[in-house]
Amino acid sequence: MKVVLQNLTKRFPARSKKEKDVIAVNDFNFEIPDGKLIGLLGPSGCGKSTTLNLISGLEAPTSGHIFFGEDDVTRLPPEMRGVGLVFQNYALYPHLTVLENILFPLQNLKGKDRPGKEEMLEKAREAAKLVQIDGLLERRPGEMSGGQQQRVAIARALVKRPKVLLLDEPLSNLDARLRLQTREEIRRIQQETGITTIFVTHDQDEAMSISDMIVVMKAGVVQQIGQPQDVYDDPVNLFVATFLGTPPINVFDASVRSERLFIGEEPVLPVPGVKDGQVVAAIRPEGFVLDEKGPFSLELRRVEVMGRDTSVVSVHPAMRGVTVRSIIPSRQKGAVGGNRVRFSLLSEKVFLFDRETEARIRFDA
Amino acid sequence: MKKNSLKGWLYLLPAMLFLGCFMVYPLIDVLIYSFEEGYNSASQTYFGVGLYNYSYVLRDPYFLQAVKNTFLLVIITVPLSTGIALLISLGLNAIKPLKNLFQTIYFLPYVTNTLAVGLVFMILFKKTAYTDGLVNLLIQAFGGSSVDFIDGPYWAKMFVLCFYTIWVVMPFKILILTSALASVNPDYYRAARMDATGSFRVFHKITLPMISPMIFYLIITGFIGAFKAYSDAIALFGTDLNAAGMNTIVGYVYDMLYGNSGGYPSYASAAALILFAIVLTITCVNLLISRRRVHY
Predict the structure, then answer these.
(1) Residue B2: what pLDDT?
(2) Domain boundary among A218, A241, A264
(3) Domain of A312?
(4) ipTM beyond cut 0.85
């Protein structure tokens, strides 16, 4: 089922006369293709959870429309939409067993939609099997780990065969190891069921690793929509560039003179086609190449070895932030020493942005 | 380890001293009194040890009347007050405008003096030479014949006592239940809404189990409180409760000690211990039931 968001806007009225109305979601347009896994990504307060609530029907939009397939569901109450929602804290009923929790949505059905007892049990078992908790059906949520509870919550959302599955910060309550495992699991379940799935996260790793497409939001406004790698490689503005990537992108105040990028007084990269002026330059950590004769010199602080890669931590007067972090292959770490370190730059890892609007300035690489 | 436990006992000492002096010692004392036959508090003498005090109390019609009154009070007021408090709390929890104002209003009786409330009830229910009381005026307005609620038939007096008790214990229960309701995670309701759960089912399957620990707390404390009722009856019917036929077990104990027919600490102790046994049994039964019904 494809999901279409059309000019979707949600405005929360101000609490007092002194405050302004909060526009949580501002003119959101997006057509989510059928059967895809979509990550809504942004810092807290960016409107991603509100967007999810609008799709689920728990909140009504101020204006705009939501379509499931060809049907306009904007005014439909949540229970009529055929949506499964997994809450951040799972919201499993603590006094019911796993089986009873999964059965709960089925038992709410009335009339001819209501399956028989045996059929309900079968459906619940099927859902439990899909998320691999079929051995724990008699437990109560309190007797399970966070990861297992998460699976129960997904099973409960799936048991009614929803057209759209929504996950609100599905991994935020899990520890790091479980998070990795569970996100693979979510991907597998999504692919096995083929249900259009939208999940909300503030963790860019999470969104990048499993989504077919990501939507980056900031202050209610969609910044960029695309496949994770495309958004990472080609951000439209400084916000998207800084939000994606670990370690984060390094940002410098820079200038362009006669089609060359200057950071400090050093010309570090030719940027054909860019007009002279003040810009913001952002360089991915992997865009630095250790080079004794390289054009870009920084003051070396320390070298951090983290298994596969080595981080070179340095400082530069023109940088924004505390340090500049570049990643080099570990075998090169012997070449770093002394007070200064020199790099040449990979032009496809360097992005220029307007000082005022922070919009991307493209150059011919 | 040993040193630590010594320290622990030292910290506990003040509390244990107080509890020992003012709770454990009197308890043991009462136990002893209850077996001393013909104890005289002035001369501190008695002439025998045995179960006579118990058999006297259990055969005393005033005591039996008090037991009947107390049990009626408990059986009527505890479920009714808890049920009504739950209804009111659900209402309070559901409304949005003026919620705080209403919560304050419903809590007001709690900070009002029992005897003052008793006075108000007298005005509402008592027949005097000048007026029949507000309630009787209402009954007459609707074509009924007036009833003397304070000095009249037993059922009328019992009705006033129960009404009064329910009214007095209600605010505390509402307070506990509204906070219990407010502390239920709203995500449960949102999840239920996503699954199209009917409102009765939400109440029965989600709200009730979630607040069940608080409900059982209220029932247990309600039972204990109602078994110990005394001041309510005094406030309504005056100090001579035996004459009014509205005595309670605690009232009987008090009368045996200090009332007009008082001066019998042994009978009082025996009655107090019988009450203790009743309350203990009922509380244990309650706990057993709640252990089965309240799970999480």
Answers:
(1) 63
(2) A241
(3) 247-361
(4) no
